[in-house]
Write a structure and sequence with these properties.
The protein is an alpha+beta fold and about 725 residues long. About 55% of the residues lie in helices and about 10% in strands. Among the domains are: about 130 residues, no CATH class; about 80 residues, Chitinase A, domain 3 (Roll), CATH 3.10.50. It has 34 helices and 16 strands. The strands form four sheets. A six-stranded mixed β-sheet has the order 13-14-12-11-16-15. A five-stranded antiparallel β-sheet has the order 4-3-2-1-5, with helices on both faces. A hairpin with a 4-residue loop joins strand 15 and strand 16.
Length: about 725
């Protein structure tokens, strides 16, 4: 066990024993030096001074003069009496480094002199400076990250460092002492510099080993925030961090050498001095859990993978069953726990049967849109997996009447159980019941979205024969109504998001999208009706498919139905304006966003992200830049060239030069109407965006027309004198 961790836990007797073993075996002193620093932090260095002197004498006798000096220097810096250690410290230091050509210069730089009243500060500086050797690794907490010492220049008192991003620089030694932290070879930051990809693979394969190294660096204990910062410094962040932490935390919870307390988001992980009994630890954790849902989550994790002892799993099931007995917990959480227990033990808990019997005996509502109590209870289960488990439970509850019960109340099935119930009815040759429900949901498509999408896939893909269906156009309208509803409601709702994506795939993806099949032979009038429905909001894939079919039917479809070409949602611009906007997007992607990512990396290296203003500013800038890039991408998707537009003759529109008279002053003006991304001048005349109030008020007018234009702060009566096409290709 690490000497530093023993000091952290203040196991002083064990520490003394382990230290003596290290002395007798001639072990390296690096861990001892950290332990002595911690002993100083705990104001217990006085108990270590005598043994440190004994250790130093043994090291000196073995000609390990540098190690002896470092041990004596560590107790001196930690608070030992200078009179007890400075003389042997100086003696060992001279024996270790006195013949080195850099020794006089180093001593002068840091004030390390024989006979000085207190060598604490000089020795602290020297021990750091001596660690900066060629090939050693250092950490710059100010944003440059990990570097490797390439060259030490004693005569110039400079050190050359190359950082992980390839940057190389010379640093004065006094700056190195003040700013840089030396890294031990076992530090994952040093390993990241040597082999970043190899370390990432190792972290994925052996998460506990990496977690252990992080904890050892922090003297045996660290919060999840500290662990996350450490992983961020080796390039594991975002979803990669979440996946790694989920796996590492689970393994640590089930390891005999780790202790995990707190929630997943605010956990504390400790290295233990002695192996623990995992069953005892599990019981302690579950008794401290805040709710039945927390107990259920913890026990469920025990059954993921093969690295948990069977006796631990059995203990978890017993504790979950005990927690589910509490009537203070929500009935749906209790039922979810019982369903999990049933899944593992193959027996339904008696308490669950009692609750289900009461729900089954409740009066069935006369309104068919209101689910019976049992089905309503299943709908409220917290996860899709819980809901899916109700299928086998229903088989147990209803026996031979199972399919009759499902056929009657299928629209009330919980979303996670829909597919299993439909499969059961198919296997039971209940096609007519499925068809009846499909016909009913086509008439009321918003009633049971998951079921409607599931049945549509069956019947429209000819997996089940169907007759007497509504017309293809009516089915298309029903499914598009559902697509519109899900498109608006899906955000923040994982279930509706999944159903929405399944519907989008069904309608618009594949070699023969369902929408194409349903709308084959539709006339222009029917397509106009559908286009209005799509215009309320659907996924882009559906919108694009309907648009393509409308244009295939009539290439003037949209000009006839939506008025002048500039009145739709298309953003009209010149080729030059489009290139300008595209260049702005490229600059964001290739310059601004990469610069921001570098800034995030620098800010992350400053330490605790919870109080890191640079981090917060960099993250806020990231949100702004990505939002800006997304907005421009969306605009470019809606853009079209004025050069390609069918411009009405002698009519004010985008792409025309307009001369007009202001009636109030009699002054004549000439402008060029172009797009919002075009330059401010064209052919010597002012450019006005067709979306600006002045140009918008002129659009559609002809020579001789008069109009009063509503400007933001006034009204402007004008007369159009001349309209001509701008030479956009000139």
């Amino acid at each position: 066990m690490s000497l530093a961790i023993l000091v952290t836990h203040e196991r002083w007797q064990d520490f003394d024993t382990a230290w003596q073993e290290a002395i007798d075996s001639g072990a390296p002193v690096e861990d001892l030096l950290v332990a002595l620093r911690l002993a100083g932090d705990k104001k217990r260095i006085s108990r270590c001074s005598q043994k440190a002197r004994e250790h130093a004498l043994k090291l000196e006798a073995d000609d390990r003069f540098a190690d002896a000096a470092h041990v004596l220097g560590a107790v001196l810096v930690a608070g030992a009496n200078p009179s007890e250690v400075q003389t042997p410290l100086w003696r060992c230091a001279v024996k270790a480094w006195g013949e080195e050509p850099w020794w006089p210069g180093y001593c002068e730089l840091i004030g390390l002199q024989e006979g000085a009243p207190d060598l604490r500060a000089p020795w602290k500086a020297f021990s750091k400076l001596a660690s900066f050797t060629v090939g050693s690794h250092v950490f710059h907490p100010g944003g440059w990250g990990v570097g490797e010492v390439l060259e030490v220049k004693p005569s110039e008192l400079e050190i050359v460092v190359r950082f992980h991003n390839g940057r190389q620089d010379n640093f004065p030694m006094n700056a190195m002492i003040d700013i840089f932290d030396p890294l031990r070879p076992s530090d994952i930051r040093a390993q990241f510099y040597v082999d970043a990809e190899g370390l990432r693979k190792h972290a994925k394969k052996e998460p506990l080993d990496v977690l252990k190294r992080i904890l050892e660096r922090h003297n045996g204990q660290a919060s999840s925030v500290v662990i996350r910062n450490a992983m961020l410094q080796i390039g594991i962040e975002g979803s990669a961090w979440s996946a790694w932490w989920r796996k590492a935390r689970k393994l640590a919870e089930n390891s005999e050498w780790f202790e995990v307390t707190g929630s997943a988001q605010k956990a504390t992980v400790r290295l233990l001095l002695a192996a623990k009994d995992p069953v005892t630890t599990l019981k302690k954790q579950l008794h401290q859990a805040g709710s039945l849902a927390d107990v259920h989550t913890r026990v469920r994790d025990l059954f993921i993978g093969d690295n948990v002892e069977e006796r631990v799993r059995e203990a978890g099931l017993e504790l979950l069953a005990e927690a589910a007995e509490s009537e203070d917990e929500p009935v749906t959480e209790r039922l979810a726990a019982w369903l999990f227990l049933r899944d593992q033990t193959k027996e339904t808990p008696p308490a669950a049967l009692a609750v289900l019997a009461a729900a089954r005996l409740a009066e069935v509502p006369t309104d068919p849109s209101i689910p019976p109590a049992l089905w309503a209870l299943f709908q409220e289960l917290p996860s899709a997996k819980d809901q899916e488990r109700t299928v086998d439970l229903m088989r147990e509850l209803f026996g031979d009447e199972f399919l009759d019960e499902v056929a009657r109340h299928l629209p009330h099935a919980a979303s996670g159980a829909v597919r299993a119930f439909v499969d059961a009815l198919r296997e039971g040759k209940r096609r007519d019941a499925l068809l009846d429900h499909y016909l009913g949901l086509l008439a009321r498509p918003l009633r049971a979205p998951t079921l409607l999408v599931t049945l549509a896939r069956l019947f429209e893909d000819s997996k089940l024969e169907a007759e007497n269906l509504p017309t293809p156009m009516q089915r298309a309208q029903a499914l598009l109504s559902l697509a519109n509803s899900l498109f608006k409601q899906r955000r923040g709702n994982p279930h509706l998001t999944r159903v929405h994506q399944r519907l989008v795939d069904l309608l618009s993806k594949g070699d023969a999208p369902l929408l194409r099949m349903l709308l084959k032979g539709a006339d222009v009038s029917a397509m106009h009706s559908l286009q209005m429905l799509v215009g309320r909001g659907v996924d882009d894939a559906i919108d694009h498919l309907v648009t393509d079919m409308a244009l295939e039917l009539d290439r003037h479809f949209f000009s006839a139905s939506q008025g002048p070409f500039w009145s739709g949602t298309t953003i009209w611009t010149t080729r030059q304006g489009l290139e300008k906007r595209s260049a702005e997007l490229r600059h964001l992607r290739e310059v601004k966003i990469p610069e921001n990512q570098d800034a995030i990396g620098r800010a992350a290296s400053y330490g605790d992200l919870s109080e890191n203003a640079e981090w917060e500013a960099a993250i806020e800038e990231q949100r702004n830049l990505t939002s800006r890039a997304s907005a421009i991408e969306a605009e470019l998707r809606e853009a079209d060239l004025i050069e390609n537009a069918a411009m009405p003759e002698a009519t004010v529109c985008p792409g025309t030069e307009v001369r007009y008279r202001e009636k109030g002053s009699g002054e004549e003006r000439e402008i060029v109407i172009l797009g919002p991304w075009d330059e401010e001048e064209f052919g010597g005349h002012q450019v006005v965006s067709y979306r600006a109030p002045l140009a918008a008020g002129l659009l559609g007018l002809h020579e001789g027309d008069s109009v009063t234009i509503q400007l933001p702060e006034s009204e402007l009566p004008v007369e159009v004198l001349e309209v001509r096409s701008a030479d956009l290709d000139g």
